Amino acid sequence: MKKRLRTTTWAKAFERNLAAMTRTATRSGTLALAQAIKPVVARRTPPPGPGAWIAGVAVGSAGVRRFRLYRPPDVKIGERLPLVVMLHGCDQDANAFAASTRMNRVAMRERFLVLYPEQDRLANPRGCWNWFDTGNGRAYAEAALIMKAIDQVCLLHPVDRARVAVAGLSAGASMAALLVTRHPERFKAVVMHSGIPPGTAHSSMSALGAMQGLRRTRPLATTPVTMAADWPPLLVIHGDADIVVSPHNGHAAAQVWADAAGAQPARARSVRRGQRYPMAVTDFKRQGKTVATLVAVGGLAHAWSGGAASKPFSDQRGPDASRMVWAFVARQFKG
């Protein structure tokens, strides 16, 4: 019988340091950041709006993980819908992430399913995905659990298996990247919002340095080089005012994808929609094909860009990240 993974001394130290960084950020006086890092009290009431909010459980070697599935209304018999997997950040759960991002509204309008896997607080006291814990295999075990949740949803619900994408915020973004590098054939696109690229950390202590942008990425030892060409396109969204996860990580994530595919950056273009924060958008291309896109949002802290007002980890003044996510993955679904 396999022993249950326990929280290590290093992991506890990581949690203490992350909490200290959070308190420091709160004292900075930045309203959006203060909202973003406020701990979330778990809510079990479904997000508002039509459609089904379905509970589920995935079981694997790393234990049990709950998940929620949003299914838009009036799904017809025989209809197959795309699936977008959304991985929350620290101090969040499925309900909070759905409320903050309002991705269900987009899914209702555009007709796709949304899966929200949920980290167990016994696996991480702050609800962070342990993306960094590759040294003892915890990260890979959690990735396998998420894949089991995806498999279960694909089996029981009207999912088009050829149109699956994954997106995440902060620790969820890093876990999304890890998922894709291990199972590139299962995803058409990946989105990292305020995350840290794979290959940057292998333990909780190295993750602290990575969060501050002090560590260089390195090739993934468990990922064959030949798989790099099969990685799906990447969209990176990162605020340039993020003091929890350094903006350098956004650039590094896009560069990891570009280097793997031999892509080169095009000239950055400035985009601003109304009174929202401005964006600097850079495409990394190889032979005319976009391998990665970096969206650097001016003035955005550690928060979901364009998220619901007054929600933790959410800044309504940013460009709408949920719309950007869908626009990006929809293009890959058509390709």
What does this structure look like?
The protein is an alpha/beta fold. It is 32% helix and 23% strand. The protein has nine helices and 13 strands. Mean pLDDT is 85; it is low at 1-11, 20-43 and 219-227.
Count of alpha and pi helical runs: 9
Shape: globular
Structural class, from secondary structure content? alpha/beta
The rounded Rg comes to 18 Å
Main attributes of the structure:
two-stranded parallel ribbon, disordered N terminus, 13 strands, 32% helix, alpha/beta, 11-stranded mixed β-sheet, single chain, 335 residues
Compact summary:
This protein is an alpha/beta fold and 335 residues long.
Tell me the layout of helices and strands.
Layout: H1 9-26, H2 31-36, E1 52-60, E2 63-71, E3 81-87, H3 94-101, H4 103-110, E4 113-117, H5 138-156, E5 159-169, H6 171-182, E6 189-193, H7 204-211, E7 234-239, H8 248-261, E8 264-265, E9 269-271, E10 279-286, E11 289-297, E12 304-305, E13 314-315, H9 321-334
Parallel strand pairs: 3-4, 3-5, 5-6, 6-7, 7-11, 12-13
Antiparallel strand pairs: 1-2, 2-4, 8-10, 9-10, 10-11
Helix pairs in contact: 1-7
